[in-house]
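During the no-cost extension, the postdoctoral fellow (Dr. R.K.) reprocessed legacy sequence entries with the updated structure-token encoder. One reprocessed record is reproduced below for audit purposes.
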Amino acid sequence: MSKGKIKKPRNVDFPDNFYKKPLEDAIYQVVQTCEVEVDNNEWSAADEALKNNLSETDEKLKNELTSLDDKLKEINKRLGDNQGNLSEDIKTLKAEIQNLKVRRPLELIVKTNNSAPKDLGKQHLQFPTLLNILATKLNVYLVGPAGSGKTHAAIQVAKALNVPFHFTGAVASEFKLTGFMDAQGRIVSTEFRKAYENGGLFLFDEIDASYPQAVLAFNAALANDYMDFPDKRVPRHKDFYCIAAANTYGQGADRQYIGRNQLDAASLDRFVFIDWNYDENLERDLAGNEEWSNYVQKARRFIVANKIRHVVSPRASIFGATLLSNGIEKEIVENTVLWKGLDEATKQKIIEYINPKKIHASRIGNFEPAVKVGDTVKENDVIGTISYDEGYYNRGTDKIKSPFQGIILKISKARNINSIENKDFSTIATIQRND
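Re-encoded structure tokens follow.
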């Protein structure tokens, strides 16, 4: 608290009636004539100390904020300088993680009855289902696109069941199945009769491309425990197994397979149906070229999604990998095993989809990224901005938007773009589609 003292005034003229005033009025009158001296040293010191403390605190905060700001700038600078390297490292790491996630191709060792175990090696992911169904002696109808491995699977099933393999492609006459008697009276047998009479696995390939009359004869053999051949009636062997393979469900031609016939409903009813689609993991493994196989599979997904009349089977991966390993240029390989006569406009549309797209700056200015490598963006998401100042009436900010849904493979650091003529210099991002 401040200290002080009151000095009595000298020669003060009071009014004549001063002594007649009430006491409180007289005191008030006297106090107004006094001088007061106050010692403010303690208050001044306290005020000065408070100011100093506030100043020190403010300075400390400023220093801390400056330090944090410098650290932030340094982090941004380091990220920006290494953005390209980080991009490659992240891509490599993501590829390794993806490879770990991808299921390895199915490898089987099968043992039936008292036979020795058979190593069937790498197989289609649905192979166990096919084998288990056939083991019940039911007939199987495999529906799958060209090159999906239906014939190979049938051969491997015969090996697993320890029976001979017999094969017939599309037939135009029932005699291709039943056989016939030649001019000398000799019986000309067929692969179907051999399997039906002596046991074995019979594959009727492209059954949906066969004449309906021939399929009706085949249906009769499956419906009964015997079959009338040209020379005699033959009972069905206990180890007879049957697979019909087709590209359609027997309902007639479709968009891709226009040369297919509609099959009799009674014939179709004799089968258990299995969808035999491409096993992409097996495809990559058989091709032995991960990068090329991924490229082929991306093209296939786009073709299927856009209902383009063009077949891209695993043979494109396997044949293409073989050609590439022998030094054939990629462009030639693509034309010979992937595009195969596809019109140029459609081909370019697919290539544009499967290849990463580079995004270029639209104008000169200061670029600031809004995303980082590895981010997934949607169509019209802002991936960065370009600020420009070309005079008082021409300044502003342009938003750079993603043209489609995809993953950021590369993104430029914050920098000044002083030329858009040089495409490499003006590239600000690379995006891989994933829609």
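Residues 357-433 form a domain with the OB fold (Dihydrolipoamide Acetyltransferase, E2P) fold (CATH 2.40.50.100). The first strand starts at residue 3 and ends at 7. The remaining legacy entries will be reprocessed before the final report is submitted.
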